[in-house]
C-alpha cells in the first residue's frame, strides 16, 4: 500500500480544508478538464503500477536518479541528463524512448515492455503538452491517506439540490423580459456594466436558424421575419425551426458529441461497427419528438429493462442502450478479463461525465483525488455493468481477440435496414462459400492436431494456417449473419442486456486484476444519496435502479448539467465553464442562482429540451447584439457576466451544411443506415470505406457522414471536430490558416462555390441583383453601400481579366461564370460566413 499512499500524498493537505481545496483548484485551473481527466485515468495509474517501485521518493533505491512521482522530476529526468518529458516532443522525451524500447541501452521497464495501449496513452499525453496536476512532495509534511468525509463532501454546491432564490432589486426595471434577464442584469449592475443593444432582425434570425437547425435561413424566411412587426414574430420563428425535422439533426449532433458516437472501435485495431447508426438515428428522433430528457436518459441506461407499449417501442428502447456499447475498445487485448474491466471503466466514464458531470472513472485505482467519490463507489457501479452483457458485434479475426454478437430486433418492430434484400441465389452462394471455408478450416485444424507435438512446436506456420482459415470462414459468416434464410436483412443493433446471474465486483487494489480486495455490493454513488439512504442493489443487474437514480428530480446534478449544456450551445459559453465536470476541479457557475432556476424550470416543464431552448431564446439576453464596448471589456474581457452575445464560429457540420445549402445541393433525405453498414466489419471493409469517404461527394447532412475513429473526414477535422473517443460537452474552436486554405482550395469548397454560382446565375434580374441575392443566401442580409461599390468594381474588372482579351460570346459567358464563381467562393471563404454575430 505504500505506493498508493505516495500517489495520493500530494493531495492530502488539499482535502483537509476548504481553503486548501480552493488553492488546488486555482493551481490546476490552467489544465483543461478533459486533459486533467486523461492524466488521472491513464497516466497516473500507469506510473503508479509500472514506475514508482524504482522511481519514486519511497523507492528503496531510486534507479538512475529518476523520480516520476512529481511533475518536476518527470520533466527534468535522471542522471543521464536527458529531459524525462518534453511537452509536445516525443523525440526529446527520454521516458517515451525508454518505454518504446527504441534504444537498446535504455529499455524500461527492463523485463517486460509496457502494453501498446499504455504506450499510446503516454504518446498522446506528451503530444497534448504533458499536462500534469501533481505537486512537489513536501518532505516531513504531516498528512497521509486522504479520508473522505461525505458530510463535508455534500456541501459542495453541485451536490446540493437546486433551489429558487429571490432576484435582487434592479436599478433599471425596463430591460429584463424574463427571470433569465433579471439574473443577468443583476450581475451586470453589480459590476457596473450595461448590456449591449438588441440585435437587428436579420442578425437574430440567422442566429436562431443556425442554433436550431444548423442551416442558414432562406431569403424568404428572413424577409418574412423582418416584415412581421407583431410582438409574437420572434416566438413564431423559433417555433417554426423547433418544429422542423432539421432540429433533431442539429441538437442530436450535440448529444452525439457527449455520447462519443462513432462507427468503429478506434485504438490499435479500429474495427468497424456497422450497426452503430441505429443509435444515431434514435438520438435524432428523440430530439425531434422532444422526448422528456429524464426518459431519454433512462432508455440509454436500461431501455431493454423498461416497459414498452409495442414491439416498435421496445426496439427503440433497446437501440437506446447503444449509448453504452458504442465506446472505443481495445479489441486486440488478449486478456479477456482486462478487456471487460476496461469496457466497464469506459462505460462508467461516459455515463458519469455525460449525465452527471462527474469524473467517476478517476476512482478506478484509488479514491477520487478531489471529489468525495470512493473506490468503493466505483466498484459498486462496476458490478452493475459486469452484470450486463455488452453486445457490439465484430467477428473473430487475427487482431480481434474480443468478439460479441448483436441484438436482433423483433421483425414486428418494423425497423429500417441499411442493407437491401439478398436474392435467394446469392444467399445460397454465400452459404455454400461459408460451408466450404468452414470445412477447409476444420481440415487444416485436424491436420495440425494429428501432428506430433514436436512437429507442432517446430512449425510456427501451423498456427497461422489454422487461424487464417478460421478467420476466412468467420468473415463469410459475418456477412451471412446479416440475412435470414430467405435473403431478407436481419435488423440488428448494438446495446446491453442483463446477464442471467448478476455479480458483484471485488475492489481491485490500484485497479489491478491481480490484486482483488473485498467484494463490493452493486450500488449507487454515496455522495449523491441522502445520508443513511440505502444504496445497495440486491436484485438484477441494477441498471434500471441506476437509470431512475440518475434521472430523478432528487438528483442534484442531472437537471443542472443538461440546463448548462443547453445554455452553452445557445449562448456560446456555459454558466459552468467545465460542462463535463461539476466536481471540485470544475469551475464554479458564474450565475449559480440562474443555473438553479433553469434546472428547476427544466424539471417543472416536464424535462422538455425544446421548452428550455424556447425559454432561453425568448430572453433579451439571448437576443442581444455582439457589439463591443470598451468599458465593459475592461471589466469583463471574457464576457462571463454576459454583457453582450458571444460571437461564435460555426462548428464543422454547420459550415459544411451551409456550403451545401447555399449551393442548392443539400440533400435533406439521406438513404437509410450508413456507408459503414454496407462496408461490413472486416479490414477489407475498412479499407474500401476509406476509399469511399475520400472520393464520394456526399451531399447529405454532415450528421449522416460516416464517423470512423482516427479517420474523420477532412471537412470536419479541419474545423475542430472532437475526439470521438471522449465525452465532449464543448468543442475547441480554433482559427488557423489551414481553415482558410481549405475554403480556398479544397475540391469540396470549390465545387460548392461553382454550384452556388450556377444557382445565383439562374436568379432573375441584373448581374448586380444576382450578386445581391448571393449576399442574402450567404449572410442573410443585403450588401452595405461600401460593399456594393466594391461589388460593382469587381464585376467591371474581373470578367475582362478572366476572358484574357477574348471577345467571343462564348468566352464572355465563360468569363462571367468564372467571375460569379470567384465571387461566390469569396463569400463562402469569408469570416462572416463561418461566424454568428
UniProtKB/TrEMBL annotation:
InterPro entries: Cyt_c_Planctomycete-type (IPR011429), DUF1549 (IPR011444), DUF1553 (IPR022655). It comes from the Bacteria. Residues 51-111 form the Cytochrome C Planctomycete-type domain. Keywords: Signal. It comes from Prosthecobacter fusiformis. Residues 1-20 form the signal peptide. This is Cytochrome c. Residues 180-388 form the DUF1549 domain. The keyword Membrane does not apply. Residues 542-794 form the DUF1553 domain.
Amino acid at each position: 500500500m505504500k505506493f498508493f499512499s505516495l500517489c495520493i500524498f500530494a493531495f492530502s493537505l488539499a482535502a483537509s480544508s476548504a481553503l486548501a481545496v480552493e488553492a488546488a483548484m486555482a493551481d490546476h485551473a490552467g489544465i483543461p478538464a478533459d486533459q486533467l481527466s486523461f492524466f488521472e485515468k491513464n497516466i497516473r495509474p500507469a506510473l503508479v503500477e509500472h514506475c514508482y517501485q524504482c522511481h519514486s521518493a519511497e523507492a528503496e533505491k531510486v534507479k538512475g536518479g529518476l523520480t516520476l512521482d512529481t511533475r518536476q522530476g518527470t520533466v527534468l529526468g535522471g542522471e543521464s541528463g536527458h529531459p524525462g518529458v518534453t511537452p509536445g516532443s516525443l523525440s526529446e522525451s527520454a521516458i517515451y524512448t525508454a518505454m518504446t524500447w527504441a534504444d537498446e541501452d535504455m529499455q524500461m521497464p527492463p523485463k517486460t515492455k509496457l502494453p501498446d495501449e499504455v504506450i499510446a496513452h503516454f504518446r498522446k499525453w506528451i503530444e497534448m503538452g504533458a499536462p500534469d496536476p501533481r505537486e512537489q512532495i513536501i518532505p516531513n509534511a504531516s498528512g497521509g491517506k486522504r479520508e473522505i468525509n461525505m458530510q463535508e463532501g455534500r456541501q459542495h454546491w453541485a451536490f446540493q439540490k437546486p433551489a429558487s432564490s429571490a432576484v435582487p432589486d434592479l436599478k433599471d426595471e425596463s430591460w429584463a423580459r424574463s427571470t433569465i434577464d433579471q439574473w443577468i442584469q443583476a450581475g451586470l449592475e453589480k459590476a457596473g456594466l450595461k448590456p449591449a443593444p438588441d440585435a437587428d432582425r436579420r442578425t437574430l434570425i440567422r442566429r436562431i436558424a443556425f442554433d436550431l437547425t444548423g442551416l442558414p435561413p432562406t431569403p424568404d424566411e428572413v424577409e418574412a421575419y423582418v416584415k412581421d412587426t407583431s410582438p409574437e414574430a420572434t416566438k413564431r420563428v423559433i417555433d417554426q425551426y423547433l418544429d422542423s425535422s432539421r432540429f433533431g439533426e442539429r441538437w442530436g449532433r450535440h448529444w452525439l458529441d457527449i455520447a462519443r458516437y462513432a462507427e468503429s472501435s478506434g485504438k490499435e485495431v479500429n474495427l468497424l461497427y456497422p450497426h452503430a447508426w441505429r443509435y444515431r438515428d434514435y438520438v435524432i428522433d428523440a430530439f425531434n419528438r422532444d422526448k422528456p430528457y429524464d426518459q431519454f436518459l433512462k432508455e440509454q441506461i436500461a431501455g431493454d429493462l423498461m416497459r414498452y407499449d409495442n414491439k416498435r417501442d421496445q426496439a427503440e428502447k433497446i437501440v437506446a442502450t447503444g449509448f453504452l456499447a458504442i465506446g472505443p475498445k481495445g479489441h486486440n487485448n488478449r486478456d479477456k478479463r482486462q478487456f471487460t474491466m476496461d469496457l466497464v471503466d469506459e462505460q462508467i466514464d461516459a455515463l458519469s461525465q455525460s449525465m452527471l458531470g462527474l469524473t467517476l472513472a478517476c476512482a478506478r485505482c484509488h479514491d477520487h483525488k478531489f471529489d468525495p467519490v470512493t473506490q468503493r463507489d466505483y466498484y459498486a457501479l462496476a458490478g452493475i455493468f459486469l452484470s450486463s452483457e455488452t453486445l457490439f458485434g465484430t467477428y473473430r479475426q487475427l487482431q480481434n481477440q474480443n468478439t460479441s454478437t448483436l441484438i436482433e430486433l423483433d421483425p414486428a418492430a418494423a425497423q429500417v435496414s441499411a442493407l437491401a434484400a439478398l436474392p435467394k441465389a446469392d444467399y445460397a452462394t454465400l452459404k455454400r462459400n461459408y460451408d466450404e471455408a468452414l470445412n477447409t478450416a476444420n481440415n487444416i485444424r485436424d491436420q495440425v492436431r494429428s501432428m506430433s507435438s514436436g512437429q507442432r512446436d517446430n512449425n510456427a506456420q501451423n498456427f497461422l494456417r489454422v487461424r487464417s482459415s478460421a478467420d476466412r470462414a468467420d468473415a463469410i459468416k459475418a456477412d451471412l449473419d446479416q440475412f435470414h434464410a430467405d435473403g431478407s436483412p436481419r435488423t440488428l443493433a448494438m446495446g446491453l442486456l442483463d446477464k442471467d446471474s448478476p455479480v458483484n465486483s471485488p475492489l481491485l487494489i490500484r485497479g489491478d486484476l491481480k490484486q482483488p480486495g473485498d467484494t463490493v455490493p452493486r450500488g449507487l454513488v454515496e455522495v449523491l444519496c441522502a445520508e443513511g439512504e440505502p444504496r445497495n442493489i440486491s436484485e438484477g443487474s441494477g441498471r434500471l435502479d441506476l437509470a431512475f437514480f440518475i434521472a430523478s428530480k432528487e438528483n442534484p446534478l442531472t437537471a443542472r448539467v443538461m440546463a448548462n449544456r443547453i445554455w452553452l450551445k445557445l449562448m456560446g459559453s456555459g454558466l459552468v465553464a467545465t460542462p463535463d465536470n461539476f466536481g471540485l476541479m470544475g469551475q464554479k457557475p458564474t450565475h449559480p442562482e440562474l443555473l438553479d432556476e433553469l434546472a428547476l424550470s427544466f424539471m417543472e416543464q416536464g424535462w422538455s429540451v425544446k421548452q428550455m431552448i424556447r425559454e432561453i431564446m425568448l430572453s433579451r439576453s439571448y437576443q442581444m447584439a455582439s457589439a463591443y464596448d470598451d468599458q465593459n471589456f475592461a471589466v469583463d474581457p471574457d464576457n462571463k457576466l454576459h454583457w453582450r452575445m458571444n460571437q461564435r464560429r460555426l462548428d464543422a457540420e454547420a459550415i459544411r451544411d451551409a456550403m451545401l445549402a447555399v449551393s442548392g445541393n443539400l440533400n435533406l433525405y439521406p438513404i437509410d443506415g450508413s456507408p459503414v453498414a454496407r462496408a461490413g466489419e472486416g479490414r477489407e471493409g475498412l479499407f474500401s470505406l476509406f476509399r469511399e469517404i475520400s472520393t464520394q461527394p456526399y451531399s447529405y447532412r454532415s450528421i449522416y457522414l460516416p464517423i470512423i475513429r482516427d479517420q474523420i473526414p477532412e471537412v470536419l477535422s479541419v474545423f475542430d471536430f472532437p475526439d470521438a473517443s471522449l465525452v465532449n460537452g464543448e468543442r475547441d474552436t480554433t482559427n488557423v490558416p489551414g481553415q482558410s486554405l481549405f475554403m480556398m482550395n479544397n475540391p469540396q469548397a470549390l465545387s460548392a462555390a461553382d454550384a452556388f454560382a450556377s444557382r445565383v446565375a439562374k436568379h432573375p434580374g441584373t448581374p448586380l441583383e444576382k450578386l445581391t441575392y448571393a449576399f442574402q443566401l450567404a449572410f442573410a442580409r443585403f450588401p452595405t453601400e461600401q460593399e456594393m461599390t466594391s461589388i460593382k468594381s469587381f464585376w467591371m474588372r474581373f470578367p475582362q481579366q478572366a476572358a484574357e482579351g477574348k471577345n467571343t460570346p462564348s468566352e464572355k459567358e465563360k468569363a462571367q461564370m468564372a467571375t460569379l464563381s470567384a465571387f461566390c467562393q469569396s463569400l463562402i471563404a469569408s469570416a462572416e460566413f463561418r461566424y454568428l454575430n
